[in-house]
Amino acid sequence: MALASLVSSLSRPQLFWCSSIFLLLCSVALAIRRIFFSPLSKVPGPWLAAASGWFEFYYDCILCGQMSGQIDRLHKAYGPIVRISPGEVHVQDPKFIKQLLSTHAKLDKDPWYYRFVGFPESGVSTGPASLHHIRRRVLLKSFTQQSVWRSISIIEDKVKELLSLLEEHKGTGCGVELSNALRCLAFDIACNYALPRSTNKLQEKDFAPEFNRMMIVGRYISMWQRHVGVLVPLILHLPHRFMGFLGHEKYLAVMKIHNDIKVQATEVIASKGTMWVVPQQHSTILHSMFNSDLPEYERSVGRMTQEGVTVIGAGVEALANPMAITVFELLKDPKKMTALKQELKEVENDVQAMLSHDQLRKLPYLNAVIMEGLRLGKENGRFPRINPSSPTVYKDHIIPAGTVMSISLKDLHLNGAIFEEPHAFKPERWLDPENAQELRHNFLRSPEATESAWDDISQWRRLSCVSGILCIDSTCNSGGQRKRTLIHVLIISR
Fold first, then answer.
1. H helices within 382-432, ranges in order?
2. How far is 323 from 355, CA to CA, in rounded Å?
3. This prediction's pTM
4. Alpha-carbon dihedral of residues 172, 178, 182, 188, nearest 10 degrees?
5. Contacts with 463 (C-beta within 8 Å, 6 or more apart), sequence order
6. By C-alpha distance, which of 240, 236, 213, 209 is closest to 225?
7. If we measure between CA atoms, which residue out of 136, 79, 85 comes closest to residue 106?
8. Which DSSP string corresponds to 451-486?
9. pLDDT of 338-368, one tens digit each?
10. Are the CB atoms for 414 and 422 separated by under 8 Å?
11. N or C end of the chain, less CB within 10 A?
């Protein structure tokens, strides 16, 4: 009663200032507790990062994705383990990276970090290890050896379609933004695995520039989504006319893709998993989910839609980024391009036929080029994991149970102690069998279910990365007419 009467006796300005001072004191007390009395207080790192999550917000959102670079700078200043937020430590140690990503380690994901996806019911956003394993098991059924072999003709048709479109641009004097073309190719291939009715981005004008812009802008939106939490759902639920009125065509492109996946998920459920728009040669992600032994709530329209969106998104990133890097590096270095052309010509018989998988896997330089493209094209983000039941020991530090522990694959793939000149594109490093074996031992695939599913394809048919290596070798006869054009778009990976 006394407190209530005291508050009622205060004027509005006095109440405002008293509330502000109280909140400030609470914030200072919380910061002191986090910095000096937290179980992580002995882990080195800046006080600001230990005190508040605003440290990461500043580098993620205000500086547009600079947190990864800032973590590297913190490691240079503080050592291999550093505290990057009140409840998270980041470790830059190849041995610890392998330990944390071991298949025997049953670790949960950090739900806050994976909020950036914007689809909480998808496999990639699933926190508990037990539920993630169940969802991952169903997902990987669409990436078996038999499934990939049945779908190879569809992928080859897409590659030939890209070649035909590039041929049409030859001689027009107009440039082609190859990164857009490769991203459209990756998107069409990913859709063929995920959906019964695939889109055709390759046929859109100028290789769908609005869609490609949104794929790039989406990386920054995802950072805000992680911290805000409602941004992606808000964008998806806004009326299309409203977004069109604002002139955000790039957002409309993604909204239409999301709605199309939702419609197809509804059709699959309505047909009880038997809906085929065109004859398919493999089971799609949506069909695998519906026909699985998952509980009914795991096969709802919302869940299937979110899984479809994230699988396609992961497929585009896993395929397109290494493609673009590989093509750029080969065009930048004529010697490497010439060496690759020469190796291809030695096994090429029919200009119109694509080389077989058996032929491709026997080409050492080609496979070295692909491995180098995959190494440099891996995701730069970090992978936070939580051991909910027991502490983790790293050197002199005991990391309590429930603490978020994160690593980054680039700390392994761009480690100068493992890969000499790690930022350089050097396929030659993979040509020595003994050295290559050691390098492969330090080459890890993504720990995420969706991206590792795409990596599983590479084990069976070398299709994890549709490499987009375009070797165009044209010669002219004495009459000035083109005598022969050799174009290879090689569908291979490690």
1. 410-413
2. 18
3. 0.85
4. -40
5. 148, 152, 155, 457, 491, 492, 493
6. 236
7. 136
8. HHHHHHHHHHHS-SSEEEEEEEEEEE-TTSSEEEEE
9. 888 888 777 765 544 566 666 777 788 888 8
10. yes
11. N
